[in-house]
Amino acid sequence: MKTRAKSAFLMVPLLAFVFLGGYFLMAGVFVLSLIAINEFCAAFGEKRPAKWVMVVSLILLNALFIVVWLFARAAGFESIALWVFISLLLSFISMFAMGKRDLLHGLATIAGVFYINFLAFHLVLVDSVHSSSYPAFDPAFLPALPGLHSFVWIVVLAAFGTDIFAYFTGKLIGKHKLCPTISPKKTIEGSIGGLAGSTVLCVLFGHFFLSGGIPLYIIIGIFGSFAAQLGDLSSSVMKRKIGIKDWSSLIPGHGGVLDRVDSVFFTAPLGYYILIFANL
Fold first, then answer.
1. Number of helices (H) and strands (E), helices first, in the chain?
2. What are phi and psi of 277, to 5 degrees?
3. Is residue 194 within 8 Å of 166, Cβ to Cβ?
4. pLDDT tens, position by position, 213-234
């Protein structure tokens, strides 16, 4: 229990970045992605991806967002398309060292770029729904901190709420295995409990702190829970294919950063596109 308590304490800075929002959150996601990149690359052993490609791709993604946002006040489809092209180009260039890297190195690099850089950055995009979070760089102007009034919270709640309620529901009444070949401890009962918990948390939090509507929170809660569980299972599949139990041992009792945020990587994009289609 002490180990888990310490691990939970280590996650507090991440929640602080969500509270601060804006460029603070962007910086937090950037650091989080750097740690995740290191864990991802190290897990592959000799077939590890080209870390330099993933880092350059991450820097480029953040730089493009800042430039396009400051001038166009939008994320910009063209900037994302440019980022995709350059990231793919760098991934293929990394394979030019014929004696050092083969096709598997290159494919792992491409997978890492999109799995970590692209998916994690959607936390920033969700936060950008509140345009005041990203003002122009002016030392005389400090943006209003979103605090608890940010849709990033509901995305995080959908992911962590699913994990927590699925765990305890599975412990109490779980009998039927969900995906025994991928994650033997997960149960159908736990999955349903996670979905219910996610929905309740999203509705309650959204009702008190956000500017949407109950139907929107229900949709994010339900589909966010599905996305969170798919994210967790996808991470488990990759770890089993690689032959590891955890991405790293950075967080005692919980594995690595990737082990903690794999579900968020899937709820963030889904939440962002739901908000976009809801015109928020």
1. 13, 2
2. -70, -25
3. yes
4. 899 999 999 999 999 999 999 9
> How far, in Å, CA of 273 to CA of 108, rounded?
26
pLDDT of 280 > 80? The answer is no
pLDDT tens per residue across span 86-120: 999 999 998 887 667 677 888 899 999 999 999 99
Domain ranges of the chain: 2-277
What is the C-alpha separation between 22 and 125, in angstroms, rounded?
10
pTM above threshold 0.85: yes
Q: How many of the other CB atoms lie within 10 Å of CB of 34?
A: 17
Point out which residues pair with 183 in neighbouring strands. 179
- For 91-100, the CB contacts below 8 A with 24+ separation are 91/50, 91/53, 93/53, 94/50, 94/52, 94/53
Which helix or strand (DSSP H or E) is residue 263 part of? none
Burial status of residue 78 (CB atoms within 10 A of its CB: 0-12, 13-18, 19 or more): exposed
H or E segment at 178? strand 177-179
